[in-house]
Amino acid sequence: MEIKREKYLLDLISRKNNGLVKIITGLRRSGKSYLLFNIFYRYLLSDGVMENNIIRFAFDVDEDIEKLDKYFPEEETKIYEKGKSSYKVNSKKFRAYLKDLTNENERFYILLDEIQNLENFVGTLNGLLRKNNFDVYVTGSNSKFLSSDIVTEFRGRGDQVHVYPLSFNEFYQYKGGDFSSVYEEYSRFGGMPLVNAYSTNEQKSSYLKTLFEETYLKDILERNKIEDKTSLGLLLDVVSSSVGSYTNSTKLEKTFKSELGITYSHQTIDNHLNCFIDAFLINKATRYDVKGKKYLSAGYKYYFSDMGLRNARLNFRQQEATHIMENIIYNELLYRGYNVDVGVVETYDKNKNGNNVRKQIEIDFVVNQGDKRVYIQSAYSMPDKEKYNQEKQSLIKTNDAFKKIIIVNDPIMSYSSEDGIEIVSLKDFLIGKYQF
After folding, report:
1. What is the pTM of this model?
2. Which residues of 358-376 are buried (b: 16+ CB within 10 A; e: fewer)?
3. Distance in angstroms (rounded) separating the CA atoms of residues 335 and 171
4. Could you tell me the pLDDT band of residue 142, with boundaries at 50, 70 and 90?
5. Longest Cα pair distance anywhere in the chain, in angstroms?
6. Do 285 and 301 form a contact (C-beta atoms < 8 A)?
7. Contact 161/136 with Cβ under 8 angstroms?
8. Cβ burial, residue 349 (10 Å; 0-12/13-18/19+)
């Protein structure tokens, strides 16, 4: 049974023939190549595009690269960098190959995988854009083809589609069965598509740990020329252990110094955290002062793009249900295309002497899309009125008319409280039954 990626297929369909290079980004092994070469390819065929008018080429597959050998035989097809094992495919040969397969009278769909392995790929893609009858789609490994690179290199000529690991609903539709058992599996092993190729928990764990160490960590070290693997690994451990908790580089610097006896400057920590973000391994949520309508520089929250990878980094030891649920909700909001911050509401309370004391209370997520805003609290369980009053406090203190939601893992039917707050079951939210 195939895992359907309907959202991303629709994203690509909506961008057809828009005159831009469609750039598919995302965490490695999240399904970008399969989306382009299988799911989108089959759609084009079903939409009436002739097979000869769809050109698929993978720059990391020898069978494809060998097709270029006959062009300019005096030149090498693979150009190896001196002293390195990596290579670039000869762009002159590739352009000649493409010219042989196309003409100026028909429309062609050009699907290119691992484009960063093509010599001068930016210049080649810009040349393809000048062909009015070419519609170009590319994927790239995030080790050398990151979102920051795209902004720099294409400057408005690219249209990015970001692919996340499987959302819970994608995973649920594939697995079927009882929500609770599927959620338990998802919260432990995450949504990397190939995890589903393994039948036992031991196999899944081993795959994820190997993927983290041999693919993501190695990519980050090599791309950013980081030599201190030990400190970087410890930083990953700290971030993995503290998903959903406020931190910042200065605080982390002090932690490394006092608890581990390691000098690790906050500037270097900031740089390394950004390396994790650039590799799509983690995301940073910024604190937003709801009443002051401004972002705060002190403290961020970091969330993992996939819970299975986060758990693998910790050898599946820390399984805090509350933080894992919060991370899964955050990822679901990103998957749906929302901008997500963590909120702060400033209030005043009386101390024991009757004096006003300023304090800040948290809103888990401030969710924005256009002129739409929603405040969300994540509560693993809300068994009584006392817990409800605790969760609603920051929502009520916003004193505005935007929608306010508490998502709970309790098996309830979603309802609206007397305060106008919507209490939503995690199941209804994750499977898309509840929309806002």
Report:
1. 0.92
2. eeeeebbbbbeeeeebbbb
3. 13
4. low
5. 88
6. yes
7. no
8. exposed
